[in-house]
């Protein structure tokens, strides 16, 4: 398992990314983070697993005419997160 990025540069990168997204979306960083950014994406980044998850997403989602390449990969990444989350919940309930 990759090591979590708890250092100031990692946290600063997250803050800067949220700020940039909020400017594009026309919202405050707080609204942007709460409403538009899946919390698992930040966790993947801080855990040092974002690149690995992105690459898996690239191979897991079929090509779709109405999605661009990055949208397709992102959809695959979010499906992985959802699957991992539901697997964790199921194993916790069965314990």
In short:
With 95 residues, the chain is mainly α.
What does this structure look like?
With 95 residues, the protein is mostly helical. It has 2 domains: 1-48, Orthogonal Bundle (Topoisomerase I, Chain A, domain 4), CATH 1.10.132; 50-89. Helices cover 74% and strands 0% of the residues. It has 5 helices and no strands. The protein has helices at 8-25, 29-35, 39-46, 50-60, 69-94. Helix 1 packs across helix 2 (29-35) and helix 4 packs across helix 5. The protein starts with 7 loop residues before the first helix and ends with a helix.
Please give the largest β-sheet.
none
Q: Which percent range fits the helix content?
A: over 70%
Total number of distinct structural domains: 2
CATH topology of the largest domain: Topoisomerase I, Chain A, domain 4
User: What's the CATH architecture of the largest domain?
Assistant: Orthogonal Bundle
Number of strands: 0
The first-to-last residue Cα distance is 23 Å
Which structural class matches the secondary elements? mainly alpha
> What's the shape?
globular
Low-confidence runs of at least 5 consecutive residues: none
Name of the CATH first level of the largest domain: Mainly Alpha
- Strand content is under 5%
Helix and strand pattern: HHHHH
Counted by DSSP, the helix tally is 5
Report the average pLDDT across residues. 84
Radius of gyration: 15 Å
What topology does this entry show?
Elements: H1 8-25, H2 29-35, H3 39-46, H4 50-60, H5 69-94
Helix pairs in contact: 1-2, 4-5
Give descriptors for this structure.
5 helices; 95 residues; 74% helix; mainly alpha; Topoisomerase I, Chain A, domain 4
